[in-house]
């Protein structure tokens, strides 16, 4: 019985497709009002050359071809558009079949259009790139009526098509395409598709699709499936799934050019055109040099204006590139419907799930909470920032997903979870010997240095903490979670904010009390991280007999008393005690209350890599809870004996003991 039902289902589906195809074949693709051409004429040759050249553009993998060829009245413009789930070879085959069909049905018309289930091919002798056109319009429907309430079906259909319109119109110049499904009456699934030619603006795409949707009640009322096709857009709904997964676009694939003017063979022999070309080329060179000079002179002013615009309105829209956007259903399937068994953790802005794409790639998906404090600003901030950043010590963003109120961020999967998972768990921290911890400290430092000085814009993270440091399979650290990050100009060192965001314990005093953040705010957070990694303790408190003492106060008091070794995690061996004590010293330099006294990340990286560099004396850290301990004399500094591997104690020396009578504390430039 099941076999009979399946056969009947397949037969009805094929029958419905045949009905649509039969009606499509009755369309009139040729426009006799726009003029004709003669066989083997210049226009005819240009047309054949242009349409046959599509297959040569192998770098195009997003199914949109818009080119022109020829000159003057013989110039031909053509657009080829395939469905978003067609592979490049399938797309080119469909377009080639359409080209053959058009040649048979329109043997001499200068303007023609052809639609199939998979693609649309159009050519004309006038410019059509970026122009929204509604005519000619054709529509088809299934000879299969809706079961159940027609009103309920129409309501669900309209909601589905409006949602698809919004998604398709938000695409970029490579693809404006969307598919999704919804439940109609009697739990019947409606599969929908909306597509525009990507050369349209978002507004024109929306307008074209809205007009196509408005035709559904006229052509397809009460029908379970139908479609409306126009030169600039098309929609389709169906009781059966007719599309596959939307193909990802290669990040390196360039958008299709709006025009690709190629001179015909007749124009190459024209002497006057050659002279004009030479004159134009010279003029272009002069113009380019002039503009370059102007650009170099106004570069700083332009950057300043762009930054001020960003600060004036934090709600300004940030455009996304289509290759970053993933299909929501694809991500949902990859995470097994965001199953609890795939849940990696829960953060302040939402849960993180492990997933696996159809190609086997493992991903981590951050599903932002609908009621979280992160709004459009933070979401866009994190997407745009991570998309521009590439560094081995920064987590890599693979894409994002949007559907309704759902917001997803897709990251590379980092297998060893976050630093806090290992460093603060007594049963897990033995996995992190000192070599690994020192490697993690230096990796974090390199990542922050990249953010502060080496990336295109100076980036202040503002939420550096152990839970935002992920560890890959080789225990390399990767800084994550840029939702709180802020961009500043390269020559700007400080900024203010009325929104204090971050994690207490890691936040610098000037930021907590006055809303002032700078690169030195991140330096403070990094100092806290160093002390946590060395000690294996959270910054919130350490048991000191009957009293609780915060980590910064404990480290400072121990260092002043010459007992900095007490800060070191007891589970670590003593083979690298000099490095441990040096890291404690660097950490205390980073958490000084006065931000001017804190070193830059460039100096910190140098300190971590050069044992011969003496370190300045740190001042009292911010939020120090015990001021009764006397201060060290200003003429003294800590120096660590790195020349004798057998010695591991910190040595307190006076400046007078220096052999060359110079202060042992070597001040370094800031």
UniProtKB/TrEMBL annotation:
Keywords: ATP-binding, Glycoprotein, Kinase, Membrane, Nucleotide-binding, Phosphoprotein, Receptor, Repeat, Serine/threonine-protein kinase, Signal, Transferase, Transmembrane, Transmembrane helix
Signal peptide region: 1-26
UniProt key word Nucleotide-binding: yes
Domain spans labelled Protein kinase: 338-612
GO CC entries: plasma membrane
Principal subcellular localisation of the protein: membrane
TM ranges: 275-296
Molecular function per GO: ATP binding; protein serine/threonine kinase activity
Occurrences of domain Gnk2-homologous (ranges): 25-128, 134-242
GO BP term (any one): response to oxidative stress
Coiled-coil annotated spans: none
Catalysed reactions listed for this entry: L-threonyl-[protein] + ATP = O-phospho-L-threonyl-[protein] + ADP + H(+); L-seryl-[protein] + ATP = O-phospho-L-seryl-[protein] + ADP + H(+)
Bias kind Polar residues: ranges: 634-648
UniProt-annotated binding residues for ATP: 366
Protein name: Cysteine-rich receptor-like protein kinase 29
Lineage: Eukaryota, Viridiplantae, Streptophyta, Embryophyta, Tracheophyta
């Amino acid at each position: 019985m099941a076999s009979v039902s399946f056969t009947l289902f397949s037969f009805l589906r094929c029958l419905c497709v045949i009905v649509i195809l039969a009606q499509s074949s009755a369309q009139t693709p040729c426009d006799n009002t726009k003029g004709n051409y003669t066989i083997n004429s210049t226009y005819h040759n240009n047309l054949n050359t242009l349409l046959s050249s599509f297959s040569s553009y192998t770098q195009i993998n997003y199914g949109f071809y818009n080119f022109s060829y020829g000159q003057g009245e013989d110039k031909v413009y053509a657009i080829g558009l395939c469905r978003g789930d067609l592979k490049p070879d399938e797309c080119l085959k469909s377009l080639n079949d359409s080209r053959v069909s058009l040649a048979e049905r329109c043997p001499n018309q200068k303007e023609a259009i052809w639609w199939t289930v998979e693609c649309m091919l159009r050519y004309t002798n006038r410019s059509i790139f970026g122009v929204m056109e509604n005519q000619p319009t054709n529509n088809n429907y299934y000879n299969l009526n809706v079961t159940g309430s027609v009103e309920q079906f129409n309501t669900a259909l309209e909601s589905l098509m409006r949602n698809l319109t919004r998604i398709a119109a938000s695409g970029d110049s490579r693809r404006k395409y969307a598919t999704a499904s919804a439940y109609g009456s009697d739990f019947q699934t409606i599969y929908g598709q909306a597509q525009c030619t990507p050369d349209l603006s978002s507004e024109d795409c929306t307008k074209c699709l809205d007009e196509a949707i408005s035709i559904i009640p006229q052509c397809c009322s009460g029908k379970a499936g139908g479609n409306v096709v126009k030169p600039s857009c098309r929609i389709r709904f169906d009781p059966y799934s007719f599309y596959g997964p939307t193909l990802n676009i290669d990040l390196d694939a360039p958008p299709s050019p709006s025009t690709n003017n190629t001179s015909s063979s007749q124009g190459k022999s024209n002497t006057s055109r050659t002279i004009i070309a030479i004159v134009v080329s010279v003029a272009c060179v002069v113009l380019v040099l002039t503009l370059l000079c102007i650009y170099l002179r106004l570069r700083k002013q332009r950057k300043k204006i762009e930054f001020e615009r960003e600060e004036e309105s934090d709600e300004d829209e940030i455009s996304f590139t289509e290759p970053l956007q993933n299909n929501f259903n694809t991500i949902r399937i990859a995470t097994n419907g965001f199953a609890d068994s795939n849940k990696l953790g829960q953060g302040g802005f939402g849960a993180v799930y492990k997933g696996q794409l159809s190609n086997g790639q493992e991903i981590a998906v951050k599903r932002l909470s609908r009621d979280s404090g992160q709004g459009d600003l933070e979401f866009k901030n994190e997407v745009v920032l991570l998309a521009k950043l590439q560094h081995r010590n920064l987590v890599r963003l693979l894409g994002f997903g949007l559907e309704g109120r759902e917001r997803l961020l897709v990251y590379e999967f980092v297998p060893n979870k976050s630093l806090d998972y290992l460093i603060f768990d007594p049963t897990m921290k033995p996995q992190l010997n000192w070599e690994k911890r020192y490697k993690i400290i230096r990796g974090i430092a390199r990542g922050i240095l990249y953010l502060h000085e080496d990336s295109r814009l100076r980036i202040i993270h503002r939420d550096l903490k152990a839970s935002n440091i992920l560890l890959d399979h080789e225990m390399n650290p990767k800084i994550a979670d840029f939702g709180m990050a802020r961009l500043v100009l390269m020559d700007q060192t400080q900024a203010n904010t009325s929104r204090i965001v971050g994690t207490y314990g890691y936040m610098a005093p000037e930021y907590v009390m006055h809303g002032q953040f700078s690169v030195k705010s991140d330096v403070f957070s990094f100092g806290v991280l160093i002390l946590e990694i060395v000690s294996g303790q959270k910054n919130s408190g350490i048991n000191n007999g009957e009293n609780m003492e915060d980590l910064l106060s404990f480290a400072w008091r121990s260092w002043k008393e010459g007992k900095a070794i007490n800060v070191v995690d007891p589970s670590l061996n003593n083979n690298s005690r000099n490095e441990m004590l040096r890291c404690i010293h660097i950490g205390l330099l980073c958490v000084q209350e006065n931000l001017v006294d804190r070193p830059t990340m460039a100096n910190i990286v140098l300190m971590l890599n050069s044992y011969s560099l003496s370190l300045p004396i740190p001042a009292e850290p911010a939020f120090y809870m015990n001021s009764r301990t006397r201060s060290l004399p200003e003429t003294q500094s800590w120096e660590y004996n790195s020349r004798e591997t057998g010695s591991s104690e910190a040595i307190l020396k006076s400046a007078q003991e220096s052999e060359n009578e110079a202060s042992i504390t070597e001040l370094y430039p800031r």
